[in-house]
Amino acid sequence: MPTSQYQQLWTRFDPVGLNRYDITTDDLRCIERYIHILQSGLRETVWDEAVQIGGPYGTSILIHEIVEIRTLQQAGIDPYRYTQKELARVLADHLSAHVVAIYEEHLYLQDVLLRQYGRHFEVATLVKANRADDTDLNYLLESGIGVFLLEQDRVEEAKAYLEQLRRGGNVIWPGSGSCNEKGRTARGTAMPMRSKRATGRSRCVTRWPGNTWVGVITR
User: Fold this and answer.
1) Residue 92 burial by Cβ neighbours in a 10 Å radius (0-12, 13-18, 19+)
2) What's the rounded Cα separation, in Å, for the pair 18 and 161?
3) Number of domains observed in the structure of the chain
4) Can you give the pTM of this predicted structure?
């Protein structure tokens, strides 16, 4: 793809996320190449999804991939020299790259939902809401990155906001009114999870495998 096309693509994404993660047009080229290696043979890849959706949700996909790429490179790994099977094995051996990417992707989505809809969700809640199964959530909870709060009773609400973010527009959620104020399958620097809105809720703390403590919030 010519450089001019990557420049046009770059304008489809959220400038806040692009600037925060220093994603350039050259990075778009690298992300496309990386995904085409990793998802070779698929009719539609996450690169296609990111380009089609654009906006903040598409930007979250870019953030995941560029963080994963950079984390591998920081470990002295050139992800572009491998075949699909070899790269899959590399990622399995360096799972931390994927885990940090999951975290940063959803940390960004947390900020977007707060900015656009005035709704705050814990990162773990967003991971569960944004994936078809719990594979990535379990990777995150077992990682040792930090303490996670999973708002079990808000997962469906988070799904509704994420889906609307994919489509654009306003969100109607029972009991919350119209949020028109300003306000995918498992597939940076890590920071500890934190809760800003746990006040007024009971917390049942559970020990998960590994060294991560998970707080499940109930109302």
Assistant:
1) exposed
2) 21
3) 1
4) 0.78
